[in-house]
Every structure is written in structure tokens, then in C-alpha cells.
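Researcher: I'd like a structural prediction for the single chain below. Treat it as a standalone chain; there are no partners to consider.
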Amino acid sequence: MRLATWNVNSVRARVDRIVEFAVREHIDVLAMQEIKCKTEQFPFERFEDAGFHVEAYGFSQWNGVAIASREPIENVRTAFPAMPGFAKGHNGPDAPQEARALGATIGGVEVWSLYVPNGRTLQDPHYYYKLDWLAALTAYTRDTLDENPDLALALVGDFNIAPTDADNGDPTVVPGFSTHVSPPEREAFAALEAAGLTDVVRPLAPTGFTYWDYKQLRFPRNEGMRIDFILGSHAFADAVAGAEIHRNERKGEAPSDHVPVVVDLDLGGPDDDDRPMIF
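Model: Treating it as a single chain, here is the predicted structure.
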């Protein structure tokens, strides 16, 4: 299985480019974030014509997540347990949920396409919403893997966190003053890993950013951030045979400000040893 995650920054604006990438790179499962459309506005037909099943979840021109897969998509969920919501001026546990999570089972792997809240500023209510959202995601991860330690679980998407200083090359993102690099956010990311997940891309692609702001020539200057990740359980991590960050997708006409992150999985079962040898 070849699995990719990509914050596409408007699927309708970039559908041709997205589908062409998925076909050219032989992607089997593509998790998308920031589709920026209602579910019924998603360009399903374009993906289906290319041989993909699609599930999408969006409310408006903001947020939104989707999964396209060559294999059937099963057990679809649009929230994890206790996932908090957010609305401007709306405090309390009953705030409406946003379209930020889409989970499904594909080929025996539980995949979540996630668009973690941005946080905005360190004083903004959205920042505390982000931390609460991540805490609920961590609790779900821990509970799920405690119940089924051998589950192949993958949390993929735009986490809006640069876990280390090396992941931040944007001079305007300053520790102590900016979101994405604050100690509580980095601690929340570490808590996810401690719940049983591994950044499966970093060992194979130790350097490289996944996001560059459109402003101030950030991409030509390589002043980006590594904020898009594929985090996997031990069963998922053990199957990873390759990984790469597709930096060139930030080039060309009307690119997203993020690029795809891809892993290759060897999910062969025990019967693989019985296949005939080819010399």
C-alpha cells in the first residue's frame, strides 16, 4: 500500500493537480485536509474516474477532510470520541464540531485524515481549543491501542506543530511568541507519540519541510516548516518500507502551500513466504 497525506488548500481549485499526482505516483490511499468545501461540493467524479473510492467531510469554505482510496473504504467516522468543537464566542463542551477528522478502515489499516486546529495566537481561545483537541485525540489513541495493541493505526495530516527546532525554518515563527512551536503544543505532540505512535517518515526522510507560507518568498528561500506527519502504531510502523516528502509539488502553477508526504507499506501476510521465487 502506498499512502499519502496532503493539505491541498482547496480541493476544487487543485483537483486536476491532485488527481494527476495520485495517478502518477501510484498512490493507493490519499488523505486530504483543508478541502474547503461542503461534502456535496467535493469533486467526487474526478477521483472516481481515476479509479478511487472517496469519502469527504466538509461544512463550508473552511477546514474539511477527505480520503480517496483504490480499495473499499469501510467503518467511516467523522469524529473521534470526546472531540471538542469550536465556534467564535461559544464556550463550553457543547460547541459545534468542525470538519477536522475523518477515520476509516482500508485494507486492514485504520487511517485518520486529520486537520489539527491552527491555534492562531498563544492568547486566542483557538489555541486552548487546539490543546483540548489534541488531548482528546491522544486519549482515543491510547484507549484504542490499549484495547488492540496490534492494530495498524495511522494518524496522518496537518498537525500544525513543528515538534523540534529543526522543523521550523520560518523566521516569523518565534518560540515564546508564536503557535506551532510553543512548549504545550510540542508536549501535546510528544504525548501522542507516547500513546503508542511513531513518526514513521522521519527515520527515512530526516530533513525537509512540508509547508511554506505564500508570503515573503518563503519557498524560494526554503523558510518552511515540517508540520505534516504520518504517525503510526507499531504494527503500522513495522510495515513501512519507504517514505518521502514531495517537495516539488510546491512548485508550478497554483500549488498548495503544503506538499504531500508519502509512505510505502509492506502489508503482506504470512502466506507471502509461499510465493514462488523468481530468479
